[in-house]
Specification:
The protein is mainly beta. The protein has 2 domains: about 160 residues, no CATH class; about 190 residues, Glucose Permease (Domain IIA). It contains 5 helices and 22 strands. The structure holds zinc ion.
């Protein structure tokens, strides 16, 4: 009667963290989108939706949206639909799947006529428990032909273990911002869900002022290293850089058509980039390099630690930084993203990190 569809399609990644000494686990996972389609011949009226989060069949948490909240959550998708109108196919970057929504059939209403659909996106779950979440059961309760009915759907929740040993792509101290603790940036895009940006402040740990030229920033053109052995499957080197902190070439509408025709989409956004395939079909993506600074070309075999290019300020970038994310497939924006665990990253207490502990974390990458 109801067709459910969700993304990620196969399973949800729980980027969990163990709390030392206490025996607790922070469960942290996101349902990117849930689509509910009335595939029956009757009109249905949605009453509520229930999320039961389980560990080995036992409930850890049960959360239920009653009508008003349910309807409120439907509004979320409508913040994204203009993207599809502006850039056809643009929603794939968020949901990882082409044509996930049938926007012509989409309604923001609890009453669904046959073949109408609704849903919501970016439902984030984070809670502390002694157990690890391994299953999400979604139950939809609705009225049809004057009686109450329900249907359930199960989505596995898994932890992700990298297939290779990875070294951090930079050396020394870095601020890692926009990592998975920030719910409003990379995390809302399927392939970049666990992506992050690395920046530095000035020598007094103050942010560099707006308008400062790239050349006057002490970490401009820092070497970026391959995180493991692999093959360069794609790269780009020729995009001109933004001139300073806070000014983007993309912000000038008169320049955009020429930038796009010369360099293409998505390069005008990613800036100069390198995309590397590692063993086990894990891919690493590095973006915003300085113009003509790449040390590799498409098809090159690279070694772990090899310099691949110099950090810059190209593309959709507000200041000199390295953007990094890992995905499962040859397209850096369509494959699903997954966490990358590094063997040589420490926090300011000298403790080795499995994952970043907060947004804007200062980390240290040891030479190995
Ligand atoms: Zn980024």
């Amino acid at each position: 009667m109801i067709t459910f569809r969700h993304t990620p399609e196969d399973y949800i990644i729980n980027i969990s963290e163990e709390i030392p000494y206490w025996g607790y686990i922070v469960n942290d996972f996101m349902l990117s989108a849930l689509k509910i389609r009335n595939s029956s011949e009757s009109t249905i009226e949605l009453q509520s939706i229930r999320f039961r989060i389980e560990h080995e069949g036992k409930a850890l948490r049960i959360i239920e949206f009653q009508k008003e909240i349910f309807k409120e959550r439907m509004n979320e998708l409508f913040r994204y639909t203009p993207i599809e109108e502006q850039y056809p196919g643009g929603l794939v970057a968020y949901f990882g799947v082409e044509n996930f929504w049938n926007l012509d059939d989409y309604v923001k209403d609890l009453v669904l006529e046959p073949n109408q659909e609704t849903g919501f996106c970016f439902e984030h779950f984070k809670f502390t428990d002694t157990k690890l979440a391994d299953r999400l059961i979604i139950t939809l309760i609705f009225d049809v032909n004057g009686s109450s009915s329900s249907e359930s759907y199960v989505i596995p929740i898994k932890q992700y273990k990298n297939k290779n040993q990875y070294q951090f792509p930079l050396k020394g101290n870095w601020f890692i911002s926009g990592n998975h603790h920030s719910l409003w940036g990379h995390r809302r895009s399927c392939s970049q869900e666990f992506g992050w940006d690395a920046i530095k402040h000035d020598k007094n740990l103050q942010p560099y002022p707006k308008g400062i030229k790239n050349e006057d920033v002490h970490y401009y053109k820092t070497e970026v290293h391959a995180i493991a052995d692999g093959e360069v499957v794609d790269c780009y080197n020729r995009l001109p850089e933004n001139p300073d902190k806070g000014t983007k070439l993309l912000d000038d509408p008169s320049k955009v058509p020429q930038l796009v025709s010369e360099h293409g989409i998505p390069t005008v956004g990613t800036g100069n980039f390198v995309y590397i395939r590692h063993a086990g079909e894990e891919y690493s993506f590095y973006a915003h390099f300085a113009t003509n600074s790449l040390k590799v070309k498409k098809g090159d075999k690279v070694k772990q630690g090899q310099v691949i290019g110099l950090m810059g300020n190209s593309g959709n970038s507000n200041s000199i930084h390295l953007h990094f994310h890992m995905t499962s497939g040859p397209n850096p924006f369509i494959g699903r993203g997954f966490p990358c665990q590094f063997t040589n990253v420490y926090n300011d207490m000298g403790e080795k990190l499995k994952h970043f502990e907060n947004d804007g974390q200062l980390i240290y990458a040891k030479d190995s």
